[in-house]
TrEMBL record:
Residues in the signal sequence: 1-20
Transmembrane segment boundaries: none
The protein's name: Alpha/beta hydrolase
Lineage: Bacteria, Pseudomonadati, Pseudomonadota, Alphaproteobacteria, Sphingomonadales
GO MF terms, alphabetically ordered: hydrolase activity
Keywords, sorted A to Z: Hydrolase, Signal
Amino acid sequence: MQRLLAILFVPLVLSGCSVAVQYGDIPHSQLAESPRCNPDKSDASAVAGKDYFAVTSRLPDCLGDNVSLTNHRTDRVRYARFAPPRMIKPAKGKEQTIVPLAFQPESDWWDGLRDAANLRKGRVLLYVHGYRETFPSTAKDTVQITSLSQFDGPIIQYSWPSQGNLLSYAVDETNMYWDERNFRNFLTKLARQQWVKEIVIVSHSLGARLVIPAVEYVDRTSTNADSSNISNIILASPDVDREDFERDIAEEVLAARRVNNDRRITVYASLNDKALAVSRALHGYPRLGSPYCFNPFEARELIAKGIPARCFATKTKYETQPSKTGFTVVDTTDVTSGGSGHSDYLRSIAVCRDFAATVNGARENADRIATQNAHVFRLQPSGKVTKEQVAAACKWAVE
């Protein structure tokens, strides 16, 4: 493990000085000045067939035939609709992924979301991506989450300016913090819509650092409502300081009254997550999505008891225990799949099944195995599976 960390650690350390964000050859204002980037009214033909909703702080590029989103910041949040990504082969060059995208005036976008939510009992799913992503890659994940979960309601992708580059972790972290205000303002407005009855939030990796403080903000500033429509929060491989989460989460996000009103958080964590192992090395302390035992004495004690050395965030202690369970950790260490083990919720057949059930409100799963911690469950392999079987269960194409 130390050798692996050294291999992965070096490029990430160097990323702070060897990789710079390039401005480009065209002034950013020219990229976004087209009316297609700033419509005064909706074009019904432009949004036709685009069933997915997007909110983005990425700089748009409306100069070409296809509207696209760059990896740069922009001066305003924009609202858009998009269709599933498709591959095109240009006359010259490599095959490219194109995401059919059309911007809308904010008011029209909200009206469209309202109409879609009202058809589905007011349920909305909000997906917040993590590190090393582009809009095409997160659009693909959004479509996969929809297909995998069969979620009965509109899907919103919040797209912040991740660079989509292995060596740009420091840039992504910087942009994520820069975008905190934009995201919390959007989540606040979403939570305060009377027609939004339930918000399911799915975040991956670094995206959890946008979601948790934003939910805290909404909870603190709620007036007429108790932000109880933010009910089901799923953190997949969260790149969050574990001790910070333990210390701060109970005050607002998992306050007893909210847990009793159906608020809950589910964390998917794996000790085989290489990306979070690197993040731990960079930040110095364990991440919420990795059950690494920072305390070696605790690890030895677990091993002495015949228990795997895996350490998790502790469950919140209340003066009066809520009647419901507010915090659950699903340990995916034994079923980790994929090169980095950082996207089990979309790559492992066992996790895909559990994730789909959790998105749709399930609090228990027959495949979960109890552990010594009442709030922690592990998943185990169900036998050898083929790539085709995983693809079918997780709804991704076999390459």
